[in-house]
Write a structure and sequence with these properties.
CATH superfamily: Carbon-nitrogen hydrolase
Oligomer: single chain
Largest sheet: 6 strands, mixed
Strand content: 25-35%
Number of helices: 7
CATH class: Alpha Beta
Distance between the termini: 46 Å
Number of domains: 1
Strand order of the largest sheet: 5-4-3-2-1-14
Helix content: 25-40%
Radius of gyration: 17 Å
Order of helices and strands: EHEHHEEEHEEHEHEEEEEEH
CATH topology: Nitrilase/N-carbamoyl-D-aminoacid amidohydrolase
Length: 272
C-alpha cells in the first residue's frame, strides 16, 4: 500500500481530443511521463478522454467496454510505467442500453482504485449518447487522502459535492468536457463548491473543437478556502497544484457540516 503523504501533487491535463483511441493512449503515455517528471502523484484527464466526448451514439456504443477492458489494461500499463495514478474517462458498456459515461482511477501498480458513472446528464449530446449512472458518488482512499469522483455537470449540483463532503472527502476529482459558453462553471461554481464544502476541487477540462462543440478549457484547481490555485487558458496545457494536509485540516475547523439542520431539509427531496 502507498505511504500516506501530507502533500499530494496533482497534474490537470487540458487537451484536445485525439482522432482515435490509439492516438489518445499515445498522448496519455507522453503526458504521463511529463507529469511524473515534474513531480505529480496523480494525473487527472478530461471527460471521455480516451475516445472523445461528442462522437455520436453509434461510435460511443462501438467503443464502449467493461471497466476491465483493453483500454483499462492499457491505462494500467501506462500508470505502472510512469509510477503515477491516472484518472481517465471512457464509455462503459451497459448491456443493450446506451453506455455509461464513466471515469476510472488506476494506481501506479496498474490496479483499479475507484470507478464512477456520471449521474447527471446535460443536454442533447449527453442524453442521446449515455445512460445516467445509478449510484451516488463515493470516496476512495489513496496515500492517506480521501478522494471523490464526479464528472462535468455533476459538480454543478450542490448535493453531489455535499455527499462527498459528508463522507469525509478531502478533494473532488472532476473530469469534464465543458463548452465555451459555460465559463461560469470553472470561474464561479468550482471555487464555490470547494469553499462551501471545505475541500479541494480539481476540474480538468477539454479544449479545442470536436464535431461542432467548442470546449472552453479553464481547467481549475480550487482550495478549501475557495482560492484558485491554478487555472488554464483556452489551449492545451498541463497544470500542477498541490493538496496540502495542513490547509485541509485548518479549513475543516470552519466547516458548516456540524451545524446543518437536517430536520429542516426534507423539502430538498421534492422535485420542483
Amino acid at each position: 500500500m502507498a505511504e500516506p503523504t501530507d502533500t499530494l501533487t496533482l497534474a490537470l491535463w487540458q487537451c484536445a481530443y485525439a482522432a482515435d483511441t490509439a492516438g489518445a493512449l499515445l498522448q496519455l503515455d507522453a503526458i504521463a511521463a511529463e507529469a511524473q517528471a515534474q513531480g505529480a502523484d496523480l494525473l487527472l484527464c478530461p471527460e471521455m478522454s480516451l475516445t472523445g466526448y461528442g462522437i455520436g451514439p453509434a461510435k460511443v456504443r462501438a467503443l464502449a467496454e467493461p471497466p476491465n477492458g483493453p483500454l483499462a489494461q492499457a491505462v494500467g500499463q501506462i500508470a505502472q510505467r510512469h509510477g503515477l495514478t491516472i484518472v481517465y474517462g471512457y464509455p462503459e458498456r451497459n448491456g443493450n442500453q446506451q453506455p455509461f459515461n464513466s471515469v476510472q482511477t488506476m494506481a501506479p501498480d496498474g490496479r483499479a482504485l475507484a470507478h464512477y458513472r456520471k449521474t447527471h446528464l446535460y443536454g442533447h449530446t449527453d442524453r442521446t449518447q449515455f445512460s445516467a449512472g445509478d449510484l451516488p458518488p463515493a470516496v476512495f482512499n489513496w496515500r492517506g487522502w480521501r478522494l471523490g469522483l464526479l464528472i462535468c455537470y455533476d459538480v454543478e449540483f450542490p448535493e453531489t459535492m455535499r455527499l462527498l463532503a459528508l463522507q469525509g472527502a478531502d478533494a473532488a476529482l472532476v473530469p469534464t468536457a465543458n463548452m465555451l459558453a459555460f465559463d461560469e462553471v470553472p470561474q464561479l461554481l468550482v471555487p464555490a463548491r470547494a469553499c462551501e464544502n471545505r475541500m479541494y476541487v480539481a476540474y480538468a477540462n477539454a479544449c479545442g473543437e470536436e464535431s461542432g462543440l467548442v470546449y472552453g478549457g479553464l481547467s481549475t484547481l480550487a482550495s478549501p478556502r475557495g482560492d484558485v490555485l491554478t487555472r488554464g487558458g483556452r489551449g492545451a496545457d498541463l497544470l500542477f497544484g498541490a493538496l496540502q494536509r495542513s490547509v485541509r485540516e485548518e479549513t475543516g475547523l470552519a466547516s458548516q457540516l456540524q451545524n446543518r439542520r437536517v430536520d429542516l431539509y426534507a423539502g430538498l427531496m421534492a422535485r420542483p
